[in-house]
Amino acid sequence: NAGVTQTPKFQVLKTGQSMTLQCAQDMNHNSMYWYRQDPGMGLRLIYYSASEGTTDKGEVPNGYNVSRLNKREFSLRLESAAPSQTSVYFCASSQDPSNTGELFFGEGSRLTVL
Amino acid sequence: AQKITQTQPGMFVQEKEAVTLDCTYDTSDQSYGLFWYKQPSSGEMIFLIYQGSYDEQNATEGRYSLNFQKARKSANLVISASQLGDSAMYFCAMREASGTYKYIFGTGTRLKVLA
Predict the structure, then answer these.
(1) Per residue in A67-86, pLDDT tens?
(2) Do B97 and A33 touch (CB under 8 A)?
(3) From residue B63, how far is each of A4, B17, B78, B88 by CA, in Å?
(4) In chain B, pLDDT over 70 holds for what percent of residues?
């Protein structure tokens, strides 16, 4: 029962390097999200995809790009990493709000940018 | 714009007592959903409880209940009979039902249950 799977779980980058965080869900959900969590800031929405083929900016999109590759997969790319992007990143998914619409989260990816 | 406010950065409660974690929200939508999540020290996000804006009764899930006061725009989480395992970070979140399906989170409350 995989749910939402994120890779990698840990990553250390140098300033200016690029990387992609991968996310896949096996629950046939339409909507997918990327959040970052920083101490004292809660979870802040970076980008989301309400359905396959669409993406929209959240609260803190600068420095990130996303791709909704298909219904299952939603990747987050850092083109030129900065120390300010050191954070824990969570991918999440939800069914459209015809039911409770709770978010299902991955286990998180801890990224450190030196 | 949506906003969630959790004004208690940290709370202490004695084991077996009840505790209330505050959450206020701001939205111009009539239809929305309110959620509470628990994040233990291991880091995963655990869904606890949901309240729809049109639900007339407060939601309950075991020892968790949501004290929903629509006019005051508050959605406080009440944990009854606290256990040591309840020590965690708790996040309040809101999703507006119109169009975008964005979920916005508060900054969280760290709860410590004392033996």
Answers:
(1) 998 999 999 999 999 999 99
(2) no
(3) 27, 11, 8, 15
(4) 97
Q: What is the largest CA-CA distance in chain A?
A: 43
Amino acid at site B67:
N
CA–CA separation, B7 and A17 (whole Å): 37
Rounded to whole angstroms, how far apart are CA atoms B93 and B83? Answer: 23
What is the band of B101 on the pLDDT scale with cuts at 50, 70, 90?
confident
Which residues are within 8 A (CB) of A27 and not within 5 positions of it... i.e. 6 or more apart?
A: A3, A4, A93, A95, A104
- pLDDT for A3: 94
Task: Report whether pLDDT(A2) > 90.
Answer: no
Residue B91 near chain A (CB below 8 Å): yes
- Give the pLDDT mean for B16-40: 94
B95 touches chain A (CB under 8 A): yes
